[in-house]
Amino acid sequence: MALINDRFLRACLKQSTDRTPIWLMRQAGRYLPEYNATRAVAGSFLALAKNPQLATEVTLQPLDRYPLDAAILFSDILTIPDAMGLGLTFEAGEGPRFSKPLRDEQAVNNLRVADLNELKYVFDAVSEIRKALIQDGQQRVPLIGFSGSPWTLACYMVEGSGSDDFKHTKGMLYQRPDLMKKILDANIQSVAAYLTAQVDAGAQALMIFDTWGGLLPDGWYQKTSLASMKAVIDLLPREKDGQRIPILVFTKGGGIWLEDIASSGADVIGLDWTASVAKSRKRLLAVNKPLALQGNFDPLALFSSPEQISQEAKRILDELAESPSLGSGLHSLDGHVFNLGHGISQFTNPDHVTALTETVVSHSKTLRNQ
Ligand code: CP3
Question: Where does the Uroporphyrinogen decarboxylase (URO-D) domain lie (predicted)?
Fold first, then answer.
C-alpha cells in the first residue's frame, strides 16, 4: 500500500523531505472535544482503548483537525501489566491503579510473560486503523505502534500507581536487584512479543516510551532501563515487506545519556524539552552516531499565545537549521521529527495546536527553500 505522506518514515530513516514532519505525543486525547464525546460513548478510557472500532475513531480525530504526518495507535502502555493479571483500573482524575502490585517475592515469582491472547484488542485496533487510514486506494500517513519500556512498566507494576518518587520500585531495585531483574526479564519478553505482534498487525514504526528512565542515577540507567530496551530492540523485526520499521526510543530526562541511547539499536532518539535538538545533533555527530531526533516543544508552552507558540516552534527549527546536517545531500532539518517533549496536557486549547502545527509546516518549508 503506497503512502500519500511518507515524511515521518523518511525523517526517521534520515532521508530528505520537503518539510519537517510533525506528530504529537498523546495527540488523541482529552484536549479534543470529539475525543471526549467518543470516550463518553465508550463509558471509560479503558473501555475505549479495548474497543477497536472506537479506538480507531479517536486515532483518526487529530489527523482530521491538524496537518499531522503520523497516526499513533490509541492505547496505553499499561495494557501489558494488565494482561499479566495485575488488575488495571483508571480512577477518574487519579490516573492508573493496579489492584495486585508486585510488592513481595511471591508476587514477583508468580509473574508470567503477558499472554498475547489477552491483548488481541490491541492488534485488532492496529489492523482496523490501517484500514481506516486508506483514502482513494492509498494510505494517508504511517501508523506508529508503541509500548512502555521494561523499566517504566516495572515502575507502575511495583508501585501499583503513578508516584512522585516511585520509592517502592527504586527500593526494590537497590535492595532486591534479583527481584527487579525477574520483573525486567518478564517485561523484555512481553514488550518484544507485543511490539512484534503490532508489526504483524500493521504498525509501520515502533516507539518505546521510557517515561521514568530519568529517575535513575547515571550508571543505573544504562544497566537497568537502557539495557532492557536494548534487549527488546535486539528481538524486534526491523523490516516488513521490504520497508524498514524505524524504532524510536524516548527516555524522559535522557538528554544527558544521548550517546548511550544512540547505541541501543534505535533509529530515532526522542528528546524532552530540557534537551536542545541542535546541541543533541552536534553531540551525536561528534561521536559518529548520526541518529535522527524527535522532539521537543515544551507541551506547557502551548499555554502561551498563538504568536508566542509560533515563535517558540521557530526557535527549535532555526537552531537546527544552523547546525550541521546528517550527511551530504541532506538539509540540516532532515532527520528531525517535530514533536512535543512529552504528552500534551488535557487543558490545552485545540486552536493553539493549530498554531503549532501550521508554523512547523510553513517555517520548515521556508527554511529548506532559503
Ligand atoms: O499518543 C497517543 O495519542 C497514543 C495514546 C497513548 C496514551 N497513553 C493514551 C492515554 C500513549 C502513547 C500513552 C502512553 C503512556 N501511558 C505513557 C507514556 C508516555 C507518557 O505520557 O509519559 C504513560 C506513562 C502512560 C500511563 C498513563 N495512562 C497515565 C499515567 C495516565 C493517566 C494520566 C493522564 O495523563 O491522564 C494514562 C491515561 C491515558 N492514556 C489517557 C490517554 C488519552 C487519558 C485517559 C482518559 O481519557 O481519561
Answer: 21-30, 144-160
Whether the bond into 296 is cis, omega within 30 of 0: yes
Q: How far is the CA of 44 from the centre of ligand 1 (A)?
A: 13
Tell me how far the alpha carbon of residue 342 lies from the centroid of ligand 1, in angstroms: 11
What are the grid coordinates assigned to 68, written together?
Answer: 499531522
> How far apart are the C-alpha atoms of 81 and 113, rounded to whole Å?
9
Most informative mutation of 23, 24, 25, 26 for ligand 1 (most atoms within 8 A of CB): 26
Question: Is residue 204 domain-resident?
Answer: yes
Asked whether residue 124 is domain-assigned, the answer is yes
Question: Does residue 165 lie within any of the structural domains?
Answer: yes
Q: Are strands 71-72 and 243-244 parallel, antiparallel or unpaired?
A: unpaired
Q: Which residues line ligand 1 (CB under 6 A)?
A: 25-30, 39, 45, 72, 74-78, 95-96, 146, 162, 209, 211, 343
Range of the domain at 212: 7-369
Reported ipTM exceeds the 0.90 cut: yes
Catalytic residues, by residue number, are 26, 30, 39, 76, 156
The tens-digit pLDDT sequence of the chain (370 residues) is: 899 999 999 999 999 999 999 999 999 999 999 999 999 999 999 999 999 999 999 999 999 999 999 999 999 999 999 999 999 999 877 899 999 999 999 999 999 999 999 999 999 999 999 999 999 999 999 999 999 999 999 999 999 999 999 999 999 999 999 999 999 999 999 999 999 999 999 999 999 999 999 999 999 999 999 999 999 999 999 999 999 999 999 999 999 999 999 999 999 999 999 999 999 999 999 999 999 999 999 999 999 999 999 999 999 999 999 999 999 999 999 999 999 999 999 999 999 999 999 999 999 999 999 9
The Cα 257–Cα 156 span in angstroms is 23
